[in-house]
Design brief:
With 374 residues, the protein is an alpha/beta fold. 33% of the residues lie in helices and 23% in strands. A hairpin with a 2-residue loop joins strand 6 (170-175) and strand 7 (178-186). The chain is globular, with a radius of gyration of 21 Å. The two termini are 36 Å apart.
Length: 374
Amino acid sequence: MNSHQLSNDPGQQALYTLIQRSIDKAGGWLGFDRFMALALYAPGMGYYANSLRKFGLSPESGSDFATAPEMSKHFGRTLAHQVAEALQVTGTDEVWEFGAGSGALALQLLDSLGDSVKRYTIVDLSGSLRERQQETLKAHAHKVQWVDALPEQLSGVVVGNEVLDAMPVQLLVRKSGVWHERGVVWNADALQWEDRVTDLRPPVEIAGEHDYLTEIHSQAEAFVATLADRFKAGEAATGKGGAAFLIDYGFPENEYFHPQRSMGTLMCHQLHKSDTDPLVDVGRKDITAHVNFTGVALAAQDAGLNVLGYTSQAHFLINCGLLPPLVDAPMDEKSMAQKLITEHEMGELFKVVAFGTTEWEPMGFAQGDRTYAL
């Protein structure tokens, strides 16, 4: 039974107080998805909403993890080729980025795309990250705007790098053949796990009777369905459609819910180390789960979008032209860019899925498309 005593840090104390009150209001038990939402996004207190450094290449910087744009400028420059093609196909000049982090990806895209982008909109809930993004993007200040919610309609190209994995998930656990939902209680001044019998089930049957922990991704699927609605509203209003490219770590359904993946995929990140206990040091570390790409693709399709492609990050970036500019690049630049595509680094675990209002084949999926595997 994991637990965590109260912190001495005032900001963290305030977050624990909020969580405790939320548990009380909910009748003494809070589903993990609601706990995760507070831990990550509670205004001013949650991990993504406080002022702590998150993104960087080493723990010495006080950061917790690095994403692809921090590792190599070639990530955004290569993605820009795909975004440029999508802008042309959709007849639009606007890019939307969800969860822009340090602003590194936005800078790489804006530097590369030039006049083909008239407006770059960042959808981000974090005030402190917004300040950092504004500093990073000051050369493009005339094009960039920030919003904290989706508009009723949108046209253009959406990008999201490591966005879906940070969306709250529900935890399901099978114990002695009986399915429970895992949630959080407050007991003796500590957070603790508590499982309750539930009618919820994973989207596929898990073979065997062994104990099994997994996640279901209602919020990520709802996000994609909402995106579809906004795209369709934008197309109805302007005659111009949209496309979305989402990059994250995860698996198709048959791998995600494999009988041997019995410990689930929930993971926390702090100072470039990983652990599996989200109840410890709440608000001071990232909480993530791998993405079930089948569920996300079905949600998009059910909401009326076309699934334009699904492949590994390695295939996607190579298809989009990552390699030629590296020929004459300095060795340190080459080695960091290599991490984006090597199998044991990011190349295979990270996937790219694309959706659009119209059917077309984006360049990123020209070779190695795995839509058939979803």
